[in-house]
Design brief:
two-stranded parallel ribbon
Length: about 675
């Protein structure tokens, strides 16, 4: 701004007496100008505030009027109800808990119309989820940490809390059942008749009265609606066939009580398993004798999953309508201590069971030698040299073949040995998906372990014997999977395989028998991965990249002409998962980034439309692998640079965590006390 004193500003100049009044007059003029400007600013700010308020009011007006013509407002009630039902979570998920956050409750709070429609849609309320609380047993275990604990007082307080939780569940279930009206019900219930989630603790014995009383209310409520049960998922910890049991009342119904029950999944942990260590070793069966679950004997049953004590799952006590089943899963179970109980069926028993189920479409069985597992917790290490393996008794040769014309998915868990003989006794014309697994116990073969040690069933998790085939000029491996793929490989399109320590060549020979394979999953490392000279965390699989090369077609490019050489494994492969990547595993099934990159680009080139159809391979859609080392390159960026089309392709890469550098310097300077400093004065 112009001023007669501009040349003196920001200097050491001292005005004269005559100049001082003039300077004051200039200052006063500017003060008056500021006052006028402040008034104008306030007027503008008031106008801006008014404009913002008008803008906000218009936005609210628009939003509310747009809501009137919103497409969802135009939906008929039946379609809107279908949208509501699509919001429901699976009954076993936490989101399905019967609380104010349940989707049905949230929907009913949107508006009056939606609330009424929610109440008029009984299927919204037909999924009952009851998870009973467990009592924290830690104070009762560690009395030395809680010396002042008053057991009577604590038990009374816990009983009050437990009763309150049960009452909330009871009230919510009552509301849900009333609003579901006459609709079929899906019920998920997890409960224990023990005071600590299944563990029997003498100090908490007085709580069991409250627990059983609370269970009696809930059980009675559910039993009254058993005519509407369509699907039940029960996970119980009980004492077997005991008269005081309340949860048994849900299992001991008659077929007449459950006329529309189509799906049943029952997992039972035995409270009888908490016994002194010196008697651990045998599955306690006296309280399970005569344990007949009439609830699953209904004529409408189509899907059955059982993980229960062996005495409760023999064919003698299971009077299921086997011919009506399309899905069957009989798995081993774990006692509450973490100890695995006996395998359900031998190979012969499994064959007898399958003969009863001619309409099966999906099957999941645990096969073993029928013995009870004496282990408690982690199995003991296997000494070296290896002991003779425990074999599954093979199916008798003279038994007729069992035909299951509709079975398209089979899962077998081999708990002790192999199930090869079962394959030869089955006729499965529709089999498409096959999963085979052994117990996930990571064991190290002894030093010097080679083919000379292979027995008829291999070592634990066995991969079988090997022999030299002079006609082919190579070693042939009798892997656990080979018997199945030789018989059904022409129809199988999906394989999921988990046998620890199988030789890589054995897996490759199995894949040769699977020309139509679309999905391949291998969850265990190859035998070649066992490098016993390395620390556990550094053991990797040096042969894994060579395995990928077997899946990579050789492509010869000559200008516009592309030729794909024959000999590539799995030409129809679209989905591939190769991973046993786990921080707890001593070895891994891992690959290098370069190896995976070459595999992906090689398959991509061989799947181009310019390749003759007779030699063209299928386009990969999903690949999941684990890598040997921390990430170095951006795989997707490199694939794009090489012309790989990432559309309709999903890659899942697992990298090991980066190693932390050794800390040579401390972040903080060590302090020196005043008394120490005195010595330097």
């Amino acid at each position: 701004m112009d001023s007669p004193f501009s040349q003196y500003l920001d200097s050491g100049y001292s005005p004269s007496d005559a100049e001082i009044p003039l300077i004051k007059e200039l200052i006063q003029q500017r003060v008056e100008d500021i006052g006028r400007i402040d008034i104008e600013i306030k007027d503008v700010e008031d106008s801006l505030t008014a404009l913002k308020a008008q803008r906000k009011a218009n936005k609210v007006f628009i939003r509310k009027h747009q809501a009137l013509i919103s497409p969802i407002k135009q939906l008929p009630p039946d379609i809107l109800s279908a949208v509501f039902l699509a919001c429901l979570p699976v009954v076993k998920l936490r989101e399905a808990s019967m609380t104010r956050n349940h989707p049905a409750v949230v929907i009913s709070h949107v508006c009056r119309q939606w609330r009424q429609l929610a109440f008029d849609t009984p299927l919204l309320w037909s999924r009952i989820r009851l998870i009973l609380p467990y009592v924290n047993p830690e104070p009762f275990y560690h009395t030395y940490q809680y010396p002042a604990i008053d057991e009577t007082d604590v038990n009374e307080k816990i009983a009050v809390l437990f009763d309150s939780a049960i009452q909330r569940l009871y009230d919510a279930a009552t509301i849900w059942l009333a609003r579901s009206k006459g609709c079929p019900l899906s019920i998920f219930m997890e409960a224990s008749e023990g005071s600590a989630g299944g563990f029997v603790i003498p100090q908490m014995k007085t709580l069991e009265g409250s627990i059983l009383k609370g269970l009696e209310k809930l059980v009675g409520l559910l039993r009254n609606e058993s005519q509407r049960w369509e699907e039940v998922r029960f996970k119980f910890a009980i004492r077997g066939n005991m008269p005081e049991s309340q949860l048994n009342r849900l299992l001991f119904l008659t077929p007449r009580d459950v006329p529309i029950l189509r799906k049943a999944s029952i997992v039972i942990n035995s409270l009888d398993s908490i016994v002194p260590m010196h008697v651990v070793g045998l599955e306690i069966t006296n309280s399970w004798d005569g344990f007949i679950m009439g609830t699953i004997h209904g004529q409408a049953l189509e899907s059955l999953t059982l993980a229960c004590p062996k005495a409760a799952t023999t064919l003698k006590v299971l009077r299921v309508n086997w011919t009506g089943l399309t899905e069957l899963s009989l798995r081993p179970y774990k006692w509450v201590s973490g100890r695995k109980a006996g395998t359900h069926f031998t190979a012969d028993e499994a064959l007898d069971l399958l003969r009863l189920c001619p309409n099966l479409e999906r099957c999941n069985l645990a096969i073993g030698d029928g013995s009870r597992d004496p282990g408690f917790g982690t199995p003991p290490p296997i000494p070296s040299p290896l002991p003779a393996p425990t074999l599954i008794t093979p199916v008798q040769d003279d038994r007729p073949v069992c035909r299951l014309p509709y079975l398209h998915s089979m899962t077998l868990r081999e708990d002790s040995g192999r199930t090869d003989s079962l394959a030869s006794a089955l006729d499965l014309p529709s089999l498409r998906s096959f999963t085979q697994t052994s117990p996930g116990v990571w064991l190290r073969p002894p030093l010097g372990f080679g083919t000379s040690h292979y027995g008829p069933g291999g070592y634990y998790g066995g991969f079988g014997a090997s022999h030299y085939d002079p006609e082919e000029g190579r070693t042939r491996y009798d892997s656990p999977l080979m018997g199945w793929v030789r018989r059904f490989g022409h129809s199988i399109t999906s394989i999921d395989f988990n046998h620890v320590g199988t030789p890589q060549q054995a897996v490759e020979q199995c894949l040769e028998e699977l020309p139509n394979l679309i999905s391949l999953t291998i969850r265990s490392p190859f035998l070649e991965s066992w490098n016993t000279t390395l620390p556990a965390r550094e053991r990797t699989s040096p042969g894994c990249d060579s395995f990928l090369k077997k899946l990579t077609p050789e492509v010869i490019e000559d200008g516009d002409n592309v030729t794909v050489c024959q000999g590539c494994l799995c030409p129809k492969l679209e989905n591939l998962v190769l991973s046993s990547f786990s921080n707890s595993a001593p070895i891994q099934l891992v690959f290098s980034e370069v190896g995976v990159l070459e595999f992906l680009t090689g398959r991509a080139k061989a799947s181009l439309s310019t390749v003759p159809e007779v030699s063209r391979v299928s386009k990969l859609r999903y690949v999941g692998v684990g890598f040997e080392k921390p990430q170095v390159m951006d795989l997707e960026q490199e694939l794009t640079r090489r012309g790989f089309n990432l559309e309709e392709f999903v890659g899942k890469w697992s990298y090991p965590p980066p190693s932390r550098p050794h800390l040579y310097l401390l972040n903080q300077i060590p302090t020196i006390s005043d008394s120490a400093m005195d010595g330097f004065s």
